[in-house]
Amino acid sequence: MTTKTAKKAIRKQGPCAICGGPYAAHRLIDTQMERVAAGDHIEAVADDYDTNVSDMVTSWIALMELGK
């Protein structure tokens, strides 16, 4: 996955219904990032979300570039 593809998917998902932010994807991405920051192995986090580390991190970067 490229960051361009990830940004398109993030935009397509639309705004967050909980906080009103522009991207609902932040909920999933924030959770993934927080788990890794708390010490969970990044591979295990990716497995839990049925993705791979590369695609997961690409989504993180895409959201950051969009400006959460």
Q: What can you see in these coordinates?
A:
This protein is mainly α and 68 residues long. The protein has one domain. Helices cover 65% and strands 0% of the residues. It contains 4 helices and no strands. The protein has helices at residues 3-13, 26-37, 42-48, 53-66. Helix 1 crosses helix 4 and helix 2 (26-37) crosses helix 4. 15% of the residues are buried. The mean pLDDT is 96.
- Which structural class matches the secondary elements? mainly alpha
- Largest sheet properties: none
Helix content: 55-70%
Weakly predicted, low-confidence segments: none
Order of helices and strands: HHHH
Query: How many strands in all?
Result: 0
When the domains are counted, the total is 1
Give the CA-CA distance, first to last residue.
Answer: 19 Å
* Mean pLDDT over all positions: 96
SS strand fraction: under 5%
| Helix run count | 4
Q: What global shape is seen?
A: globular
What is the radius of gyration computed over CA atoms, rounded to a whole number of angstroms? Answer: 12 Å
List keywords for this structure.
mainly alpha, 68 residues, globular
Give the arrangement of secondary structure elements:
Elements lengths: L2 H11 L12 H12 L4 H7 L4 H14 L2
Helix pairs in contact: 1-4, 2-4
Brief account:
This protein has 68 residues and is an all-alpha fold.
